[in-house]
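Module 6 notes. Inverse folding takes a fixed backbone as the condition and produces residue identities as the prediction. Think of it as a translation problem where the source language is geometry and the target language is the twenty amino acids. Below is one complete input and output pair. Work through it position by position during the lab.
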């Protein structure tokens, strides 16, 4: 990559060049499959894929910090998994993990199937499996407004084991800290408020935001929420 990248298209072509080559020149698996497109469009157009937010860039820039949450034998929910590209990432990186990949509208990419990935085409609000160590959402939480942020968030927290973590990665502008969720434009929310609501309305539950930062790729923000062991 050249050291002076000025425009968006230069950024994309530089990222695509790295992607094609792979880190250290290794030929990569199909990391840039469909799945990043908006859930309500017919998005198999490669122009919709943001090369900054893929399992490849996640692996390079984010994994070294987040891997501490993914203990061996973790029971992981990849909520709104799209084609399952992050489920595949976790199945390769987390020892003896059991990964539940669910999506209400998309199918698991057949070449991503693994013994430890259990896919179901299910709306989260109808999904019955519980007791997850980690609930992971990459570009998904902002879409849950369709089902109500407050009710969806309370179900996410209820489906988590005590001691478990929710990892929400969304556009950095979606999470607000001052305004209440109900007053915000569609797709925007206030996770601090949603945590307070969960703490007030769910029995024996205490959740807390433990990490919050804009990713080094500048597009997205990661928020990690912990459900405490014992209230
Ligand atoms: C922008 S895509 C992200 C896909 C995937 N996480 C990734 O990064 O490749 C959002 C996904 O969430 C799914 N989705 C949205 N609301 C959902 C819900 N309530 N239950 C299950 N899946 C949902 C959509 O079908 C879509 O595939």
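Target side of the pair, the amino acids:
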């Amino acid at each position: 990559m050249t050291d002076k990248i000025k425009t968006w298209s230069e950024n994309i072509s530089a990222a695509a060049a790295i992607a094609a080559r792979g880190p250290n020149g290794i030929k990569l698996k199909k990391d840039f499959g469909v799945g990043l497109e908006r859930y309500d469009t017919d998005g198999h157009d490669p122009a919709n894929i943001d090369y900054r937010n893929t399992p490849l860039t996640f692996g390079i820039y984010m994994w070294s910090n987040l891997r501490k949450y993914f203990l061996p034998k973790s029971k992981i929910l990849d909520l709104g998994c799209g084609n399952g590209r992050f489920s595949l990432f976790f199945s390769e990186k987390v020892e003896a993990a059991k990964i539940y990949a669910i999506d209400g509208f998309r199918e698991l990419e057949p070449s991503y199937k693994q013994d430890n990935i259990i896919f179901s085409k299910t709306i989260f609000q109808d999904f019955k499996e519980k007791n997850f160590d980690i609930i992971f959402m990459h570009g998904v939480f902002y879409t849950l407004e369709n089902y109500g942020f407050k009710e969806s968030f309370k179900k996410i927290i209820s489906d988590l084991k005590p001691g478990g973590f929710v990892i929400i990665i969304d556009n950095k502008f979606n999470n607000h800290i001052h305004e209440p969720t109900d007053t915000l434009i569609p797709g925007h929310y206030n996770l601090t408020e949603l945590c307070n609501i969960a703490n007030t309305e769910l029995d024996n539950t205490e959740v807390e935001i433990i990490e919050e930062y804009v990713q080094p790729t500048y597009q997205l923000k990661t928020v990690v929420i912990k459900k405490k062991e014992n209230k």
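Reference fact for the lab report: Residues 88 and 112 are 6 Å apart (CA to CA).
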